Amino acid sequence: MKKYILLAGALLCLTLPSIGLAEEQFGIGGSDYMVDRKSPDLLDDNHDTDEPKEYVGIYDPLEPLNRVFFVFNDKLYFWVLKPVKTGYTAVVPWDFRFIIGNFFNNLASPVDFVNTLLQGRFNDAGAVLSRFVINSTIGVFGFGDAAAEAFDIQPRNGDFGETLGVYGIGEGVFLNWPFFGPSNIRDSVGFVADMQLHPYNYLDLDSEEIIAARSLEFINRLSLKGDSYEELKRISIDPYVATRQAYTDYRRSLIKSHKLVDKK
Questions:
Q1: What are the pLDDT digits (tens) for 85-101?
Q2: What does pTM read for this prediction?
Q3: Cα Rg for the chain, rounded, in angstroms?
Q4: Does the CA dihedral 77-79-81-86 come out positive or negative?
Q5: Which of 78, 91, 174, 257 is the most interior residue, by most CB within 10 Å?
């Protein structure tokens, strides 16, 4: 029962409505530095390249159900998450929210380390390990980003869905999870694996403490972001299709850039 409670808490605390997984960002580094952690800003085209793209369709046989969940997540955002975000932002100064983001990002370093290592990104894995050691000591348990500010060691990220993609595992069916937002079979399996690898599972914390930590992590992350979901809705004829395409394009681009066969 305890594991089911943890999973339910994680579902609520780690996700954004329909674009949640696709926009996660932590505030780390210097005062003007933000890292895009594992997922894109859906309104940003910087992940595109000048290389010609071979169009590959998105397999979405569950689109009717996915759209139901999209609407559910949309209501969750405007009725619950946005008001909580607004209140939290008003109460907690930006500088404090920034260093809290540093702490949670540093805590997740084992996930990044294992995945960059599995992907053959050995330089990146070394950077992740160096950042963790430096920020956990000089950076005072990760609240500061001394690695970036004093040593110019910038963040490197990796997740198990990306790792599976690097090894040629296909994305499978597109999924729009309630609470989680856009994903696919491969990335969903990867997310569960990353959850098991996260240090929360190995600290002496009970279920309530883990849920509280996840909640703070999520709300703090949300407070450091802009309102890109609302802007996406405003400019899109069909926000569901726009979100699906942006998420898929980003993940494919990310995996392509890290494929082992491309390493020299």
A1: 999 999 999 999 999 99
A2: 0.78
A3: 18
A4: positive
A5: 174
Residue 215 makes CB contacts below 8 A (sequence gap 6+) with: 9, 12, 13
Report the alpha-carbon distance of residue 93 to residue 100 in Å, rounded: 11
Tokens of 70: 């999209």
Q: How far is the C-alpha of 17 from the C-alpha of 90, rounded, in Å?
A: 22
Alpha carbons 108 and 197: distance in angstroms, whole number: 9
Rounded Cα–Cα distance for residues 6 and 9 (Å): 5
- Give the side-chain half-sphere CA count within 13 A for 10: 16
Q: How far apart are CA 2 and CA 21, in angstroms?
A: 25
Go through 224-259 and write b for each residue having 16 or more CB atoms within 10 A of its CB, e for each that does not.
bbeebbeebbeebeebbebbbebbbbbbbebbeebe
Burial (CB < 10 A; 0-12, 13-18, 19+), residue 74, is middle
157-177, pLDDT tens digit by residue?
Answer: 999 999 999 999 999 999 999
Q: Residue 2 corresponds to which tokens in the numbers above? A: 């305890």
Q: Residues 45, 161: contact at Cβ < 8 Å? A: no
Round to whole Å and give the CA distance between 255 and 47: 12
User: Could you report how far apart the first and last alpha carbons of the chain are, in Å?
Assistant: 48
Residue 86 carries which side chain, given as an amino acid letter?
A: T
